[in-house]
Amino acid sequence: DIQMTQSPSSMSASLGDTVTITCLASQDIGNYLSWYQQKPGKSPKLMIYGATNLEDGVPSRFSGSRSGSDYSLTINSLGYDDEGIYHCHQYYEYPLTFGSGTKLEIK
Amino acid sequence: EVQLVETGGGLVQPGKSLKLTCATSGFTFSNAWMDWVRQSPEKQLEWVAQIKDKSNNYATYYAESVKGRFTISRDDSKSSVYLQMNSLKEEDTAIYYCLGWFAYWGQGTLVTVSS
Questions:
Q1: Max CA distance (Å), chain A
Q2: Can you tell me the distance from the alpha carbon of B2 to that of B73, in angstroms, rounded to the nearest whole number?
Q3: Which residues in chain B have their CB less than 8 angstroms from residue A87's CB?
């Protein structure tokens, strides 16, 4: 199975900051990587697909990038609405797998 | 507006069965690949099963942890997907989400397996 090692597990940042969350894939997954945002009591929401493509309606403050097997989600100009858990997900190969999640708190 | 509504969750004893239903609207269900994903109380997401569309012969795929116990199926005439869960274990306790194309998520239904 492809392991997605996500870091950090939690982080705290201030309004207006820029933060980066990363996922390391245990083997090649190409660009078959998505990022989801989950707010308390809600289902996950697709933010980025294909490693770098912004889902319709997602603010341009969010961006995805790839460097080899490292995938990153960057959020610029943090706002209170960005608080939540972020999950990475590979859909290159079965079984499909998720990272362990990053809990983002806005100070 | 896209909607996915899961029903059928609840409290069940170990070894028993439960069937989840996901009714959808707002997108072309017959072309969609549909999945079930579950989330543990620790918030870890785990993919459970996928069923492809008719053009892909309704192929199904399962996580190893549920293979042989869970069955995913669909009814294109009702725009619905199902998850039949047999021989349930305590570790199957989770919120179960129905997904379309991995872009559309339902609100989830809670399954608790406990004696």
A1: 38
A2: 20
A3: 45
